[in-house]
Amino acid sequence: MLEREQARGRERPTLERTTDAILAPLYYRAVFTNEPLTSGWAYDLVSHLVSDENGAAEAPDSASDSLLAD
After folding, report:
1. Which residues contact residue 9 at a Cβ distance below 8 angstroms, ignoring those fewer than 6 apart?
2. How many CB atoms lie within 10 A of CB 24?
3. For a Cys-Cys bond, which of 14, 47, 65, 70 suits 56, CB 3.0-4.6 Å?
4. What's the pLDDT tens digit per position in 9-42?
5. Is the separation of the CB atoms in 42 and 60 below 8 Å?
């Protein structure tokens, strides 16, 4: 993903930006809520971090699968 961002002429997200956009929400949801960690939700986090000017692409069909196995 980072290479695609550079190929588009954009700068790579910083570690701080990535932590704020992806790791913090994942941690918060896992520790403080009962909301499921789905691949679609994680895809949305990444899409917002590296989205293009037309918005994020649609999540793949498997995006509703839970990230945590029971």
Report:
1. none
2. 12
3. 47
4. 888 888 899 899 999 999 999 999 999 989 999 9
5. no
The total number of residues shown for the chain amounts to 70
From residue 26, alpha-carbon distances to 8, 12, 21, 30 in Å are 27, 21, 9, 6
Query: Which two structure tokens, joined as six digits, stand for 44?
Result: 């949305």
Least Cα distance to 62 among 34, 42, 35 occurs for: 42
Amino acid letter for position 40: G
User: Tokens for 19?
Assistant: 């932590």
Q: Categorize the per-residue pLDDT at 67 as very low, low, confident or very high, splitting at 50, 70 and 90.
A: low
Q: Which residue has the tokens 């961002």?
A: 5
At residue 46, φ and ψ (nearest 5 deg) are: -65, -40
Q: What is the pLDDT of residue 47?
A: 87
The reported pLDDT for the residue numbered 70 is 44
